[in-house]
Amino acid sequence: MIVMERDDEEALMGHPYQHYDDVGDGSSLLTSRFLLGHVGEVLLSNTGNGVSWNLVEPVPNFVSDKEKQVKFADVYAVDLLPGSLVNKPSGLSHSGGSLLHQLSEMHWFRLHVVQKSKTGSSLWRASVYTFGNMSLDVCKSWVDLIKAKLDMGARRPKNLLVFVHPRSGKGHGCRIWETVAPLFQQAAVKTQVIVTERAGHARDMLASMPNSDLCLYDGCIAVGGDGFFNEILNGVLLSRHKGAYPPFPGDSVHSFGTNNDSPPNAEFTVSEPCDYSGVGSPILTSSEEVPEFLFPNDNFRFGIIPAGSTDAIVMCTVGVRDPITSAFHIILGKRVHLDIAQLVRWKKTSASNKETCVRYAASFAGYGFYGDIITESEKHRWMGPKRYDLAGTKVFLKHRSYEAEVAYVEVESEKYAKAPAPLISRTSLLRPRTRVGAAANCRVNCEVCNSESNETRIGSSQHSGNLEGMKWSTSKGCFISIGAAIISCRNDKAPDGLVADAHLSDGFLHLVLIRDCPRPLYLMHLIEIARRGGDPLDFEFVEHHKTPVFTFKSSGKEGVWNVDGESFPAHLLSAQYPSAFINLQFNFPNLVGKEKYGPRPRLLLELLQVGMEEEDVNHPVSSKNKKKCLKKRTRP
Q1: The overall pTM is greater than 0.85
Q2: Is 226 a catalytic residue?
Q3: DSSP 167
Q4: Mind listing the pLDDT tens digit for each residue in 416-431?
């Protein structure tokens, strides 16, 4: 860039220093002299994709922000301040031609920037830079320039529908929203805020909201946990997603959904008068005819401000449970494609009639151990997040197993997927780690999620519509748990998640089947989940399969599924992956590779072996005794 000199007499007259340099593409790069608060006099330049500044005169022993560059993609707001008197900053010298040479009225504008926190790569924090000039026109020109650049960049939200769960997590939903709301105001993002009053309130409102009103928003934000986000997700999708649904259990190999309409939802009803009113609720009004609002929809985005107990979705997409960081992701228009699983319940209990009910899940659906935890935790909701610890302990001590049949399409089986085996091998405990690094983990610039083949199938439901001729496999027996992970499900209690290699939009469900085993072995599996660098899939009683679709049939009278932290009773159930179904206003997390881990702790191995010897009576070798064991451990 060409820098032109200015004589001291011009400076003393108060004429602003400003220079335009033509870059040959119809645009120009601007350079101006400003007083930067707490720093001194700087030359501010437009670099094309951001702004940079340098001190006019280097200050001895002063290094903070003397040279700085900020990208427009990291700027979330810019505003003009009223003029005021300025005093010479202490410790700064100046020449006769400096803006600091005289006391005069200055005009200021502030640049609000998002920067990574020094305490963590995934944490984002706000920085504010205040620039002053004696000319109001110069300040206005920079404000207009920066605003124009922000509008030209990534599509940022202008109008958002926000639902706040006041009792989510520790009951701090409203307080958390009050913390981040000023950020949206600074960024000129209009928000329509609704504080829910009962369970299902947000779902009922979204389901009954006319498409013409929903189209006026750029997205919908949930201030709560995974369960609350699931409620909002289902409220939007249940009446707006049209597509074939997965095969009926038992007819998996030959039966495929061909109806383009979603199955009737017997359970979803607006049980109370809806609080939504079309008058005055939307931020904008439009007299134009609005097209049908269907999904997949690339223009409508979802977002989460974490306020829940685990916040697994935020942990997998942002990398940290921090409301301010999540708010900045939303404001800056960050976006990732997120796979959504569609679950169809065909029968609620063994005695009930066939009645279809659809649910959508964004993180996890689990049966057995996971369903029991959500059922038990509801009895202790007054305890807040600690209820999950109590519920998990009680369910673990009961050590129940359930007889069921699971059929799935074979697409890709993980290294640790085993053929059904009735016996548990003790030598599996002594098997050393063989996984090295975490090259396949989902992270910034993920090759799997950003692959060209993945982009072309976004929202296409290609797997579920092309199952004919694909090989089906069946696993039948007693299971402690059956889980379908959509994402890795990282959280504070599972630092690497249930399935560390799961991606945000790879088009697969990660089906994890935990067969009946001695309690000490299952404890070892849970310890591996809770341990950073652990490998909970590295057991003989664990099956792990990548699949686009599976069916489930319980051999008992009833059962409960845990769908994103919400209870969903089902006796017959099918699940499929529509593939990269929605857009989430987040970015990929910054993850570091896992190191190679050695064998499991020796002392724990010895304790587990003792426990296995005590429980060998429940796992005899003969097939006759094995049948008795299955009967004994299966709850009807």
Answers
A1: no
A2: yes
A3: T
A4: 444 444 444 444 444 4
